[in-house]
Every structure is written in C-alpha cells, then in structure tokens.
Amino acid sequence: MKNVAIIGGGIAGPVTALALGKAGIGATIYEAYPTGADGVGGSLALAPNGMAALEIVGVADAVRAAAQPSTRSVMTLANRTRLELPSLSEVGPLHVVRRADLYRALHDEAVKQGVDVEYGRRLTGVEGTTALFDDGSRARFDVLVGADGVHSTVRRIIDPDAPGPKWTGMLGLEGVSSYEVPEDPGTMVFAFGRRGFYLYWRNAAAGSTWGVNLPYHRPLPLTQAREVPREEWMRILRETYGEDVPGGDLLRHTPVTSMQVTGALYIMPSVPHWHRDRMVLVGDAAHAPSNSSGQGASLSIESAVELARCLRDIEDVPQAFATYERLRRARVEKVAARASKINHAKTPGPVVQRLMPLLMPLMLKTFMNPDKTVGPEQRYRIDWDAPVGTHA
To answer: How far is 276 from 93, CA to CA, in rounded Å?
Structure first.
C-alpha cells in the first residue's frame, strides 16, 4: 500500500495521516478549501480518551499547551437551580481548545512528518482507483479515506442512498466577554436559560468565553450565517439570553467583533455503509454525535487511529475496513444515542421548562451515574501496539 488519499484536512484527516505514518504507510491529504483552517471555528472539549489517542500520534503535548483544562462541571436551570454534576475519578480533565489551535497542532505535526497537503482540491467523483477533483486533476490511490465531515462527498460515492446529517434545530455561536463569571477557570457551566441553552467558562488569562446553542427556524449554511451582520446576531442573542444570569452580562460585555457563528449543529443518523471497495469513512463522515455528547472530536481521533491499526495489520483491504467498522460502530452509536436524548432538553417546551428544576436533580441522583454513563467513554484507550485480528 503506497498511495492513501485522505479527503479532508480538518481533524480526522491529519490524525489519519499521522497514524498511518506511524504504521509505515504514506498518505496525501486533499483539502477542498484553498487555505488551511487557521483562525476558523469555535471551541471544543477533548475528553480524556481523545487526548489518549492524540498521545499515540504525538500531538497531545502541543494540544495541552494550547488548551485550558476543565476539571469541574456545573448545571444551572432557569436562573434558579444550581447543580454540581458528578465527575469521574482518575481520568484527567477535559481540555478545552479552540478548533483552530487543534488544527494548527495537527497540521504542524503532519508537515513535520512529511505528509503532503494539497489545497483547493475538491473531490467530485471516483473512477476505479482514481480520485477526480473539480479543477480537472486526478490522483491514483490504493485506499481513499473520506474524512470530509458531515456533508461528506465520499459517503455519497460509497452509497448514493446514504442518509445525510440531521439538523438539531440549533445554531452554534461563540464569543469572548470581558465580564468575568464568578467561577474558577477550571469550571465549565452548562446553563439552561429561559429560552435556550448556553455554556460558559472563565478564561485563565482574562474575561470569559461563552457558547450558545441558539434555537433557530432553519439550518443556515455557514456561509449564509456569516453573511448576516454580527450586529443582527447580537440582537437575536440578547433577545434570547438577555434575561438570563449571567447570560445577559456575558453578552452585554462582548464586543461584537469577538463573536462568531460556528454553524448549524448537526447529528449523523446511523450510516449503513462505512466502506466499499477501497474507500472508507472516518470521523464525522461516518459518525457525528451532536455537540451534546462532548465526544465528537475525540471519537473522530479514535477512529482515525483505529483505522490505521487495521490497515497496518490486515493485508486484505476490505477485511481491514470490515474489522475497523466492527471495532468502532457500537461504541460511536452508543455515544450518539446518549447525546440525542440530551438535545431534547436543550429546546424544551414551556411545560417541560417549568418542570426542569424539579426533574433534573432527580435525574442526577437516579440516572446520571458517571461510572455507568460517561465512564466507558472516557476511560476507553486504544492499545496501539496490540495486533489487530480479523475477528476483533
């Protein structure tokens, strides 16, 4: 195997290239956009299992240097109820990092390892083992990896009837406020406001970062969302969250220039076919739990590493793909199911909203045992050195 073509240069693509390189397999990344993702995107939290997978490809230290650790989580309900969320012991903190900083760490390591990245190469189709791009260029491959996100072109090529992403009914926006919330920098607060869900944390340097899951009437593509003036988005945000504490203060102390739209929030339904012939999906193209899971990026990183292990150890490519899917599908779909339930609570109707202060403490006591819910997710570790069997 000499030519692995990776479609997509976001998160899963570079991790796949790095893991393949560690396995002694060369790869080229083809990115549709003309430039990299420096400065693009909001923040995300990498769970301990995601950080463990980054250790394997040698990027964990660079990510830690750019991230802010979060060791404590709190939930607030309708400005009245404040609940300490149960936490896991001995797994390490979440690492909150800007997507652009994660991208830069991955990209820098990929370049250091000699991975070729070709920009402005948007995939349009495949003929046999040749990738076709919209600029008329072509590229031969032994394996083609679709790391091209929820709107994956590779997924449609593998299966024209494959389901597309399902919109959650919310848009993501984020900003940095000069208002300092009365929390220590290691605390992340998940707030169910009067009209919508938001979260916030105090920055280690100064101010606070906030993010919202804004209920919206239609799924705006990111390009359209960014055409809306920031002043208009700020007006909508203040109308939705202005009565919340501290949501209103966070917004009133946010310069409009520091606010950005991060896009419509999607979740992938179960994808029937992850691979066909010599093509395979990885990351959000195959499985994208909603951001409610806290696992989206971490699962993408895990899958990239696991795919490389399978290609390293199983010579028959279709068999390697089938083994990779067996190793990953049950895990990622269980996470997605958990996140889907949380999403319903983010856009509650008026009756449920009134009952939430009564229901949520009961849920925390009876159902939210972290060792049973997120324990299997965050304690999961890939054994890179263990050989992969075809019946794994």
So the answer is: 38
